[in-house]
Amino acid sequence: MSSPAPAPSRRTVLLSVLGASLGASALGGCQATGSRTTGPEQDLPEGTTSAAPGPEGVDAGVDGEALAQLRTEVQDLAAMLSATLVTHPGLSQDLAGSQRLCLDHDRVLAQALGQDAGLPTPAETASGAALPVPRTPARALAKVRTAHAAYATHLLAGAGTATSPELARVLAAMGAGASQHHAALADRAA
Amino acid sequence: MGAVAAAEELEALQRTLAAEHAAVHLLGLLGAQTSQSAQPERFALVVARHAVHRGRRDQLVEAVRAQGAEPVAAEAAYQLPSVETPARVARVGVELERDCAAVYAALVGASVDDGRQWALDALVESALAALEWGGTPESFPGAAEL
I want to staple A172 with a disulfide (CB 3.0 to 4.6 A). Which of A39, A72, A159, B103 is the partner? Predict the structure, then answer.
């Protein structure tokens, strides 16, 4: 007598969502260019569901976790921007581009994760981190710049290690965008 | 790397090389339209970008040869944009960096390890150069369809 099939884990669900999203229309209709991680099926440690990549080469374990972390980071960055603007409304022009970047990136990351897009309200971070805003606009801007730089670094690192070619391309473009906005903020502060 | 992946990387390298050939050609045109005495900063930017793109072109030629293939040659002629004013020169500068960013983003997806890191660095460098030409920051440089 066979035992009942286990309920799908978060990883299994994520894998199917990522595969569908990245392979079809969710990321602009671009087809993934093929997998670098296909290979013979491996024996899995107990408690895991799959070590194989998704239909388009997406590995839910590696790529999915990276995407989830990046979404948390962009949501935290958006919350920081909102809180900064509440304290320093005079920075609205400086931070408008960054706010648009956060909205765009959250949309793509949410799509890839099969989640609803939506940024948190001011003073509410996805990671639960506190949001103290520096008292002076210059220091507040410096803090935002630092967060931008870290976000860009993490996106580019994610592009470097992504197992899906299409995900690597998308994260690379996002990292380049975050780098551009960081540079623009530095120019404004100069 | 499998045969399919290697072929995809080679194809992406050749497309990137073709884009760099075009960029080098265009930058020559922009240099000819930029006065060194009247616009020293712009002229310095043209010279610097020409050097960067020539260097990348040469590296791509080597990368293609390392894969045992013949690098694509530059076209005999290119359809040239209008560059009669400094503003048009700047616009062409932004566009050529954006075009290069797109092929480097594709190369990121088609390559692995050191090759991917090189493509990533080139993508970011071109994205930042687009700002130097007067472009505005984008959310997805190199993947405008997103």
Answer: A159
